[in-house]
Each structure stands twice: as C-alpha cells, then as structure tokens.
Amino acid sequence: MARTLKVMPESEPTPKAATAAPPVDGERTVRIPVSGMTCAACQARVQRTLQKQPGVVDAGVNLMMHDATVRYLPDATSAEQLVEAIRGTGYGAELPPAEQSAFDEQQARDEAQQEEFVELRRKAIVSGVAGVLAMFAPMALMSVVPMRAMNVVLLVLTIAVMAWAGRHFYTRAWSAFRHHSADMNTLIAVGTGAAFVYSLIATIAPGFFVRRGVAPDVYYEAVIIIIALILTGNAFEARAKRATSAALRALAGLQPPTARVVRGEGANTQELDVPVADVRQGDVVVVRPGERLPTDGEVLSGESAVDESMLTGESAPVAKKSGDRVIGGTINRTGALRYRATTLGADSVLAQIVRLMRDAQGSRAPIQNLADRISGVFVPVVVSIAVATFVVWFVAADLAGAAAPMVKAFAAAVAVLIIACPCAMGLAVPTAVMVATGRGAAAGVLIKGGEALQRAGAVDTVVLDKTGTVTEGRPTVTDVVRATGTSHTDDALLTLVASLESSSEHPLADAIVRHARDRGLALGPAEHFQSVTGRGAVATVAGHEVLVGNESLLAERAIDVAPLRDDASRLAGQARTPVYVAIDGALAGLLAVADPIKATSRDAIATLRGRGIDVVMLTGDTQRTADAVAREAGIGHVIAGVLPEGKVEAIRQLQQQGRVVAMVGDGVNDSAAIAQSDVGIAIGTGTDIAAEAADIVLMRGDLRSVTQAIALSRRTMRTMKQNLFWAFIYNVVGIPVAAGVLYPAFGLLLSPIIASAAMAFSSVSVVANSLRLRRARLA
Question: Mean pLDDT across the stretch 645-649?
Fold first, then answer.
C-alpha cells in the first residue's frame, strides 16, 4: 500500500551542498595543461598558487590529467596571467589551442602518455643494466683491475646515468628549490646526490676517511640501482595511469575518420568519401551494413538495427527507420541507411560525452582534501626526519663506540629520503575517479565529476518522477467520456482538444495528438495558446475557447467538474490520468490517458529498496492515479498533485529530515527539483535542461542505471579509502622502519636500495587497486 507524503507550504530554496565555491555571475572556466608535476606536493603547490591569484573563484589541479581547471573573473585576471602564475611555481603551462576539439585533445593526451611510458621504460632498462654491471663487475674484476681504477670507472658510469636517465629528478628538484618549494624529486635528488657526493670524496680523497678510521667505500651501484628502480616504478605507473583512461580513449576513437555523403544535383549526384570534419549540416550521409555512423542525424530512408551499446550500455541493437534519430559513433548492423546530418563537431552527442567524461575525470572528490593538506607539508617534514635520523644515529653509534658511525647514520638518512612517497597520496583519489567514470560510461552512466561520484554513495532516498521515469513516457488515450448535455461528439471533442495540444510539448499532449491522427481527424490551428505549467493549457480553436487540464485549473475558472468526478476517480484507480475538457466555459468531457510502467522499473525499485534505500515517487498527477502506479511499481511512498515549485519543496523537506536525496527525472518540470537534490540524475533520453542541471546522466531510460550509479559510487568510495589508507600507512610504517626504529630490537636496518624499490612500487599498487574498478559488477 503506497503511503502519501504531505508537502508543506513553500519556502526559499537552499543551494545544493558542495565543496567547490558557488558559481559567480560573469565567471569563466579555463583548463590549462601543466607539465612537470610528479607528485602530490607538486599538485598542492600549483593549486595553492592559483587559489591565491586575484579574481580566481576556484581552482583544482589534477595530477593524473596533468592540468588545472580554474574558474575566474575576467575583469580581475586573465587566462594568460594564470599561465604565468603556474610558470612562476617552476612548472610548465600553456593554453590549449582554441580550435582544438575534444577528440584532438584526447588524441594528443594519449600520444603524450605513450611517449612518456616509452621514454621511462628505455631509461629504466638502460639504468638497470648499468646498475647490474656496477654491482657485479667490481667483484668479477677485482683481481684484474685495481680498486681505485674501478672506482673511477664506476664514477663515470654513475655520472652518465644521473645525467641521462635521472636528469629530470635533479633539474626538477633544482627548479623547486629556486621557487622555495620541495617535492618528490627533492627527496630523490637529495638522497642519491648525498650518496654520490660521499662516493666521490671516497674516490678522489680516500685518505679523508682513512684518517678517521672509516673505510673509503663507494655507493655508486646504490645510486644507479635506486635511479633504475624508481624509473621502473615510474614506467609501470605511467602504463597503469594510461590504462585508467582506456574508456575515454575508446569513446574518442568511436568517430570514424571519413563519411560517405551525397553531393551534387540531378545527373551529377554522386557519393563521396570526405573527412568527417568536412561534413556540413544537412548533408545526406550513406551508411552501409557493418559501418560506423560518422555523425548525428535523422534517418531519411532505409531500415536497420543500430548497435548503440558503446554509448548507452544497452546490448540489444535498436531498430531505426525513417524519422528516427541516430547517433554518430554507433554501428549500423543490418540494413543500409540514408540520413541527414544534424549536430556536428563539438555539438554532437559523442563529442559532448567525451567532453563530459574528460571534465569529470579532471575533477576532484572532496575526500581528496585530506591528502592535499598532508602533501603540502610532506616533503619538508620528511627532510627534517632524515636530518634527525642522521643526527640520532651518529650520536648513538658514536656513544656506543661503534665503528664508522657516520656510515650507518648516512645510510639510514638516505633510506628515509628515498622511501618517502607523496605520489601515492596524490594518485589515491584521482585514479579511482578516472576509472570509475570510465566504467560508468561503459554502462551508459555519465557521472559529471568526483564530487557527484562521492555524494551518490551516500544517497539513502531516491525520488522518482513518474512520467518517463517510472513509466514509458509514451502514454496513450484509453477513454473519451462526454459530459451529459454536451453537443460535441467524441470525434469533435477529440479534434478540439488535439488541436490545442498540438502546440504543447507535454507527453500527455503528444498522446492525445497521436490518438486523434490515428483516428484520421483533421486538426486545426490553436490561437492564443497559453500553457499553465503543471496544470493544463488554454487556447482558441475554431472559434471555441478550449480549456484542458486538471481539476484545480477548471475550478480556478469556476467550472464545476462534479458531473464527471466519479468517472475521473474510477479511471485514476486504474492508473489512468484523467484530463478534464471545458469548451466555452462549460464542462464538455473527460479524456483518460494511460502510461504503462517500464518493464525494468519494478526490478530496479526492488533492488534499491533491498539495499536500504527509500524510494519516493513524485508527480503532478492525481493522488489516485499516482497510488495505482506506485502499487504496480512497488513504490511505498508517494507525493502527488505537486507543481514544479512543489517538487522543489518536497525535495527540500526530505533533506531537512536529514536524508541524502537523489532526484531522477527527464522533463522540464524536473529540472528545478534535480538541481535542488543532493544528487540530480537525468535520463538522457529526456530534455537537455534536465541533463544540464543533473550530476549524473543516464544514457538509457532504464531505472536499473540508477542502481548501477549508486553501486559504482559505493564501490569507488571503498577503493578511494583503501588507496588513501595504504598510501598513508606505507609512509607511516615505512619512514620509521627506514629510520631504524626496528634496529634496537631486531637488528633490522633498511638498505637504501630496498627503500627505493618499496617507494617505486607504492604508487603502482594504488593505481592497480583503482584499475580493479574496471571489472566491478554493478548489478
């Protein structure tokens, strides 16, 4: 039995909770590619600098995407000044070309990622081979080559590796130092640089150590192997990071490079293959079976089944015939089609999806703020710990009378510098966001950002619009009831109503118009048409004032509906929507419209309720009709008879009860409620306004996508927390162990080489954990 929820009087709307700064009138948004960032400390420095610039409303920097997204006031600053501000921190930045499309940008990013991986792999292999030679050659040749000569050879080899394979560590560390900052490169450069300087002195002035009772040992092999291991970890990380954007790369690759268009007139008509960029709006495009559609359009001739699974997640091909809409990037399976190209370039559905996904993957989740705060002070703290480690070890060893106290103190300090890893903290959240948004897109769920992704996991109440969300959204006329005493026949009544409704965009209006045309009725023009949102419409048709709407609209016009109230109640109890008709100020009849429930709605609603989520149906329909639909769909709570403003108030009252509310809808009447909710979910088959206000867009009109979105969010939040836990625990445990905290009890002291291996693979483990989301089950 459905329970009715009452809606209280309206109050002022409250803004959707958000961690980002609220929108400001006149603001602009720019995305700036940033080069040279390698860890969370780099990201934190660039972000702090941008947020301090005058005129900046909000700024976010993404380590995975290597870019900064800045909202700013053009009267106070400019994109060029923001670029200079980034460069002032020691990192590279430049504005992307204005004419660059989402496809071109993604291709450029893919090429850069591939080049980075290849370069890191080459350097890792070469430095790894050099490290093996540096470790074993002295032992193999010690009877042939004098030790001092061997040290000189190792010195030259180490300089070569540091200057080529590890050059970027030192140049970036120096750049950070010049700009009064520190990052991961600082730790690597100081650690390996200290080992190199120690070995250099031992090579050119061994007596300095001998006079102090210390053997002049060198650590060239340690320097080379540390660089090799870190580069190996970086190469694996680059490869794994590239895998996180596989879904976006696949989407961007859906658009074919050429299109077959019909050009010329009369006898000169011919089919030509042209680049997709050269297709013009209105061109006739020809697609054969098995080919991918190059652009969006409307079918002119032919029938076929089109595979839209790559965009909607729906595995079954969709039948297309004349008049149907087709989407670029989908695959024509069976018959040949001719269609007229409509939206092109940046306005196409595929380009919008790619752009939405790119923006989402570049966004930040609120849970990342903790990692950012720690990253901002991480490197200075680690350097301080390394210095303290050296001092404590040196003093303790010296007091204990141990031989060569400086050697152990030096090794422990270097191990602390090398094992510390701010990278894992910087990658913990962005990698999960990238993979999750890609996984969602593959299922036809477009999540607009990390904040929406995080909020969706906390949803405990889902509010569903009725028409087009729970139901098919394609209603049909089931009954025509004439009022006693009216002079109009059924067809005459239907003709007048359909003529009026032909000017309306409401789904019920479309049903009435279709029904009239199916009966072969000729519709006339509607003059002085006026829509009364959520209640009905009025117009003049064939000299008659025609009023169509609900009971409250007719009561407002002093028209008594009592003669037909019993009929309306009976029809509403059968899940049919009654629509009253008045002609020339008198009640004339009643039309009943039924909208069948979607086949998947009941299962989806049962799944939501099974996961502890309360489901509420919100509709402007009559209470009896809404209750009947709710019973059939398995919905326990109903809010009926509300106008668009009432929907906003209903959402607000649920929020005031402490609920986290998701609103699912597809129409203009839903957009305000979608914006008010904590998580707005729009069915992509509906209007653009609803999609614009939404945090999540469902590419297919199936409520099971709502369950998938929430399941994906919850799974992603678990992954984010796992990543952050391991990133933090790695440093919390690793740094003390490297400092020698276990030595007094167990005699365990971590080698700098082992520390470098642990550091190199800590980031890889975080990325690998995020990649598991690609195989996440969302049922």
Answer: 83
Ramachandran angles phi, psi of 171, nearest 5°: -65, -40
Q: What is the pLDDT of residue 20?
A: 57
Share of the chain residues as helix, strand and coil, in percent rounded to the nearest 5: 50, 20, 30
| Tokens read off for 362 | 């570049």
Q: Which of 279, 189, 271, 173 is nearest to 227 (CA)?
A: 189
- Cβ–Cβ < 8 Å for 21, 55: no
C-alpha 762/C-alpha 727 separation (Å) is: 7
Assigned token pair, 596: 């069948």
Say if CB 698 and CB 709 are below 8 A apart: yes
C-alpha 36: how far from its chain's center?
Answer: 24
Please state, as a whole number, how many other Cβ atoms lie within 10 Å of the Cβ of residue 78: 14
Amino acid 27 reads E
Residue 465 is among the residues annotated as catalytic for this protein: yes
CA–CA separation, 680 vs 366, rounded Å? 18
Residue 314's closest CA among 698, 696, 681?
698
Nearest-angstrom CA–CA distance, 410 and 401: 17
Number of neighbouring beta carbons within 10 Å of residue 773:
23
Q: How far is CA 396 from CA 198, 210, 214, 391, 408, in A?
A: 21, 21, 17, 8, 11
Smallest Cα–Cα separation from 382: which of 644, 638, 538, 185? 185
Nearest to 677 by CA among 701, 650, 643: 650
Q: Which DSSP state fits 267? A: G
Q: How far is CA 708 from the centre of its chain?
A: 15
H-run or E-run covering 314: none
| Alpha helices in 362-422, H assignment, sequence order | 368-399, 405-419
pLDDT in tens, 698-707: 888 889 999 9
pLDDT in tens, 175-193: 888 888 877 788 888 889 9
Out of 183, 296, 465, 670, the active site residue is 465
**What is the spatial distance between Cα 688 and Cα 673, in angstroms, rounded to a whole number?**
15
| Residue 445 scores a pLDDT above 70 | yes
Cα separation, 304 vs 197, in Å, equals 72
Of 24-38, 465-479, 521-535, 646-660, where does the model show the most confidence?
646-660
Residue 493 and residue 459 in contact, taking contact as beta carbons nearer than 8 Å? no
State the residue for tokens 């040992």: 217
What single string gives the DSSP state of each residue in 460-528? -EEEEEIIIIIB-S--EEEEEEEPTT----HHHHHHHHHHHHTT---HHHHHHHHHHHHTTPPP--EEE
Integer-rounded Cα Rg, in Å, for the chain is 34
Give the pLDDT confidence score for residue 18 in this predicted structure.
Answer: 45
Confirm if 42 and 423 have CB atoms less than 8 A apart: no
The structure tokens listed for 511 are 């049903």
The single residue listed with the structure tokens 């087709």 is 326
CA dist., res. 70 & res. 157, Å (int): 45
Residues 6+ positions from 775 with CB-CB distance below 8 Å = none
